Amino acid sequence: MAGKQINPIVKLVLEMGPIVLFFVGYLMLRDRAFMIGGTEYEGFILVTAGFIPLILLTTFLLWKLSGHISKMQVATAVLVVVFGGLTVWLNDDRFFKMKPTMIYTLFAAVLGFGLVRGQSYLQYVMEEMMPLKQEGWMILTRRVALFFAALAVLNEVIWRTQSTDMWVNFKTFGLTIGVFGFFMLQGGLFQKYAVEEND
């Protein structure tokens, strides 16, 4: 079952679906408050509570359909459960807003650790999608590690200084566009260090 191909549209829906539903749910409930068990919860808290089982379900479905999930997906799911759970349990939205900071800091630290050891851990995750020469992988890994570190700092600045509306928009659209734009800007590196078929 390992390595089984999955329909790209299904994969995209399972990966992006929870984020889109979180955004839609937030738009619907952001101005409402709910009394549950004698405690008042804002809409953001309830949407976060719904996001936790949703991300676990989609991660499970990805594993069931493809036969494997990446370590990044596992780490993301674990951090969603931990920080989302703290958000709901303590009725404090700050924990969930910290989650992207923790995720990107973790990724940057792991990639940085690999670089210190002279290895590209990014290569282990993405080699099948983008065959590059070793030098190219090392350069790309350095750039990705710095990019993740910058995203962690940016998330901290935004959630601590801006409104929840601003943070949700940043998390839903800003991060997605940022990651897409970053890899688009690496086109020159991909061309320069691409592994030719006859290499």
UniProtKB/TrEMBL annotation:
The keyword Hydrolase does not apply. It is found in: Cell inner membrane. The chain crosses the membrane at residues 12-29, 41-62, 74-90, 102-122, 143-160, 166-185. GO terms for cellular component: plasma membrane. Pfam families: IspA. It is a multi-pass membrane protein. PANTHER family: INNER MEMBRANE-SPANNING PROTEIN YCIB, INTRACELLULAR SEPTATION PROTEIN A-RELATED. This is Inner membrane-spanning protein YciB. It comes from Actibacterium atlanticum. The gene is yciB.
